[in-house]
Amino acid sequence: SSRKPFGLPTNYESFKKENSPRFNIKLFRFGKNGYINENQAFNRDLIYKYKVIVPYASPGGDEYPHSVLSTPLISKPNTCCTETYLVVGPFKDQKICENVISYMKTRLFRFLVLLLKNTQHVTKKTYTFVPTQNFNENWTVINEWNELPVILS
Fold it and tell me: How far is the C-alpha of 94 from the C-alpha of 108, rounded, in Å?
């Protein structure tokens, strides 16, 4: 997604701390999560689908191994987020989301993101070189960059 996938800023404060019949959409935000009414957000159709949310900012340190991205989260139906996160998806079920996250943890994915990531911010443009894959399968170690077969001629 682009920034503010649901039109809510990072410092959005018009949320409730407890789930209720009127405020039943879980809101992922920086700090404590909360609950909102669906009318408070844009992209309402996306609220009711499975998706992966990825923090918009990630560690900027040079420690090894370089984390490149912060931890992605599965965002189930009846959830949304502030601009603290970007949305990947939507997807048909939780298993697909798990497979997307396993792909995001591969060295190839992280390398391709790192090519365009020059600040702590990870924008939609940062993912330009990352090809879409078949997410019906889990991306395990066998799919890692260093595990791909090398053919010498």
Answer: 23
